[in-house]
Amino acid sequence: MRVTLHVWRQKNARSEGKLVTYQVPQVDPDMSFLEMLDVLNEELVGKGEEPIAFDYDCREGICGTCSLVINGRPHGPEGGAATCQVYMRNFHDGDEIYIEPWRARAFPLIKDLVVDRSAFDRVIQAGGFVSVNTGGTPDGNTLPIAKTTQEKAMDAAACIGCGACVAACPNASAMLFVAAKVSHLGLLPQGQPERARRARKMVAQMDAEGFGNCSNYFECEAACPKEISVEFIAWMNRDYLKARLTEPDTVTPGMGAKVGPSPVAGHDATAKKHPVA
Amino acid sequence: MELDAKVPGGPLETKWERYRSDVKLVSPGNKRKYKVLIVGTGLAGAAAAATLAELGYGVEVFTFHDSPRRAHSIAAQGGINAAKNYQNDGDSVWRLFYDTLKGGDFRSREANVYRLAEVSLNIIDQCVAQGVPFAREYGGLLANRSFGGAQVSRTFYCRGQTGQQLLLGAYQALSRQVGEGRIALHTYAEMLDLIVDDRKAQGIVVRDLRTGAIRSYTGDAVILATGGYSNVFYLSTNAAGCNVTATFRAYKRGAAFANPCYTQIHPTCIPVRGDYQKKLTLMSESLRNDGRVWVPKESADRRPPDQVPDPDRDYYLERMYPSYGNLAPRDIASRAAKKVCDEGRGVGEGGRGVYLDFQDAMARAGEAVIREKYGNLFDMYHEITGEDPYRVPMRIYPAPHYTMGGLWVDYNLMSNLPGLFVLGEANFSDHGANRLGASALMQGLADGYFIISYTIGSYLATKKAGRLAADAAACRQTEQEVKQRISRILSIKGKRTATSIHHELGKLLWDRCGMARNEQGLKKALQGIPALREEFWHNVSVPGDGDDLNQALEYAGRVADYLEFAELLCLDALTRNESCGGHFREEHQTLEGEARRDDEQYSFVSAWEYAGPDKSPALNKEPLRFQRVHPSERSYK
Ligand SMILES: Cc1cc2nc3c(=O)[nH]c(=O)nc-3n(C[C@H](O)[C@H](O)[C@H](O)COP(=O)(O)OP(=O)(O)OC[C@H]3O[C@@H](n4cnc5c(N)ncnc54)[C@H](O)[C@@H]3O)c2cc1C
């Protein structure tokens, strides 16, 4: 089959970008979407032209490196799959396909389809952990954990940190990402001692990074390659509210971030999309 | 070259304990004066970084990925071993040690392997405390499954995403130290060379992948935790970015490279589909707990699998290895698959595939149970092949997966270059000639959480804190060489892509130095590789420039290193004139076609020493001495 691609090309953050059209005449339906782009890039490099920059690594939907908004949808048409798991058999001969980067103020563009998602790392650095040092931990079977609890924690922990939730949200909110980590650790007994503090610190950092608010559009869940449920957002909101009630709303020294507006789902639709969008 | 393994004296069982009591310590107040540079944020690197920073050392971390969480460890599926004996099925430290040593065909260092089995106990405790959601039984205790090469159930897992959850645990511990300002983290930072001065490792040269800026970082010690080199074969189960550059550059600066020919070909991968594929997909070994491997008995049998009645099927692993059956170790299961396909009994396009069939397990336990255990792997298979494994058996074939070889290290995990430590898949130490399933995650975390924190002290305590100035002559000289190499690659402006040259190299290696090797084939490979290298340096096309994100340039640099490293790999395979583990020399097999070791002549580690461009590297041997174990013929029958 043959497809026509319209691909966002932008040399770097400082230059202007535009959609450039490419033909890919010989597409095997068994190819993955990224393999199709590899074939195009091979042709470009062979001609001495710069290949399209895009992110990928494991190509098994687990590392969270790949991105791409395909025909307006983060990770493309399939649902429940990362871009690297999308196959050309889901497209048709003659299709026109638009490929763009994640767009969000908190994810500045580096080149073509590659954006900088280090804001996610900083949110984890602010509190997305259990503060135990190496060594001195009790035997792994000391605390029994109900299978259902562990399964639920695992559902949240399955997040791959790709950023599709942010790219899909009209407000570029990172609530699903943050909620997944807050819930994963908050559901387990090991996460209890820091539960309130964790929610507070991570939310503060999320706001400081310039992610938008949640307005219950739930586009995030639809785009999530791991199908992480928006239920976890409600879960986090409860934790966050409790944290604000039980602990004074202080700014943590050295965090450099102040607690922003409550992330509790409201109907505040302040768009925080990247200006080039 | 002097290769002193520095194995402590005394009985095997108490070496590590004694070592820990005797090792020199750096006082708490002095730790912060030392700076440790860590390259890599996989299980080994992230665990080491978190642990050393917690102890108070100054730590700087580097990864070429955009985030530490992207390291290839994230993709590990099946599980992690530990000798907890929670199942009460007869496991012990000794048994895990012995299984690992035997699994490696008695080509690893006994004392290192014993220590690995010992600290495996702590790893699970540590991960649970971090919030790693390991699978549990209804009673709330930790669950286990079985992996190849073992008759006990000692593998801990998180669905089919064990590597992800373990790495996130280590990543979170690392992130906590970054947040507290104890670790300086450099992402998009690719190490392109090692700075050696006064015959010690003193720093690294790093390229910022976003800006192209090249600069030196110096420290009191350098830790490489940069993973394995399976991608030298072009097609492997490794993530696309995995490469040999860091360890190979260190080799060219004087670190010995050990056993490069010990590569693992994993039996259960999705077969190759087309020329456009860049990587292959693993189907976790855990599937062999319930899946049965078979091919038709007759080579002419072209019936669809559901129409082949049981008597016409050859469950060849169960037939050949009755006591381990489908859980035979990887090297053995891979060779058996090759053998039945060579006999013309392979299935699927091109006849390079065998069935992995779950019908019996589903009939026995119900589809729901199988779905709960392996749902995500089945889905993955379905997405990739378009076939539903709940209805049609999976088709699988071996593919390059893991590399046991790596930089030579002593008991302290320090290379022969003082100040250079090597952890995780990047070193050679624990798996001999074949690694057992679920043992790489164990080793990465053992090295990072529980070993390096002691052993680095043995070096730092003997050294005054203080590092080379970043503009010292050695730094400037090394930076200059890195820059020249990059300009040279950019200036070729030839006609061929680095991918096409890499692909050709991979085919050559797979054919001549893959699952079966022989003298003639290896000699052919050794002739072919220099020609490909010539082709690269005269005809590669790398568009763009060096001062912004240039993925074609990054990749070409890695391919250039593979083109040299591949030669070392083949030379090692040619020199090791015996079969052992994953290294199968066709000249040396038993009547039944099993690997035949030659302990009299080859019970040593091959540690290769770089001798300069166009010179043959020197072979150094570390004899393997077994204090407690008597190497025997490795049988799984
Ligand atoms: C598909 C798959 C499944 C697996 N499943 C299992 C399993 O179930 N159980 C098991 O025990 N093992 C498994 N393994 C093996 C195991 O995952 C790896 O051996 C292990 O994770 C390696 O960890 P590591 O920390 O040594 O290196 P990696 O995780 O590979 O990390 C390497 C790090 O080094 C960095 N790096 C490399 N070179 C440079 C450079 N030049 N400059 C800067 N940074 C650099 C990378 O960015 C990365 O951060 C599996 C492997 C594969 C391929």
Structure at a glance:
The complex is a heterodimer of chains A (277) and B (637). Helix content of chain A is 32%, strand content 11%.
Poorly predicted regions of chain A: 251-277
Tell me the span between the first and last alpha carbons of chain A: 30 Å
Oligomer: heterodimer
Give the strand order, joined by hyphens, for the main sheet of chain A. Answer: 2-1-5-3-4
Mean pLDDT of chain B: 96
| Overall pLDDT level of chain A | 90
Radius of gyration of chain A over alpha carbons? Answer: 20 Å
Radius of gyration of chain B: 24 Å
Number of strand elements of chain B: 19
Helical residue percent of chain A? 25-40%
Name of the CATH first level of the largest domain in chain A: Mainly Alpha
Strand coverage percent of chain A:
5-15%
Summed up, the domain count of chain A is 2
Q: Ions, cofactors, ligands: which are bound?
A: flavin-adenine dinucleotide
- Which CATH architecture of the domain at 266-401 in chain B would you pick? Alpha-Beta Complex
Question: Strand sequence of the main sheet of chain B, in spatial order?
Answer: 5-2-1-9-17
The structure class of chain A reads alpha+beta
Instruction: Output the structural class of chain B.
Output: alpha+beta
Task: Tell me what you see in this structure.
Chain A has 277 residues and is of the alpha+beta class. Helices cover 32% and strands 11% of the residues of chain A. Chain A has helices at 33-46, 118-127, 147-157, 164-168, 175-187, 195-208, 219-223, 231-246; strands spanning 3-10, 17-24, 69-70, 73-74, 96-100, 109-111, 114-115. In chain A, the strands form two sheets. In chain A, strands 2-1-5-3-4 form a five-stranded mixed β-sheet. A two-stranded antiparallel ribbon of chain A has the order 6-7. In chain A, helix 3 (147-157) runs antiparallel to helix 5 (175-187), helix 5 (175-187) packs antiparallel against helix 6 (195-208) and helix 6 crosses helix 8. Chain A is elongated, with a radius of gyration of 20 Å. Residues 251-277 of chain A have low confidence and may be disordered. Chain B is α+β, with helices and mostly antiparallel strands. Among the domains of chain B are: 266-401, Flavocytochrome C3, Chain A, domain 1, CATH 3.90.700; 486-601, Methane Monooxygenase Hydroxylase, Chain G, domain 1 (Up-down Bundle). In chain B, 37% of the residues lie in helices and 14% in strands. Chain B has a five-stranded parallel β-sheet. In chain B, strands 11-15-14-12-13 form a five-stranded antiparallel β-sheet. A four-stranded antiparallel β-sheet of chain B has the order 16-10-18-19. The relative contact order of chain B is 0.16. Flavin-adenine dinucleotide (FAD) is lined by residues 39-45, 62-65, 71-73, 75-80, 162-163, 190-191, 225-228, 237-238, 242-243, 245-246, 282, 401-402, 424-426, 438-441, 444 of chain B. Flavin-adenine dinucleotide is lined by residues 39-45, 62-65, 71-73, 75-80, 162-163, 190-191, 225-228, 237-238, 242-243, 245-246, 282, 401-402, 424-426, 438-441, 444 of chain B.
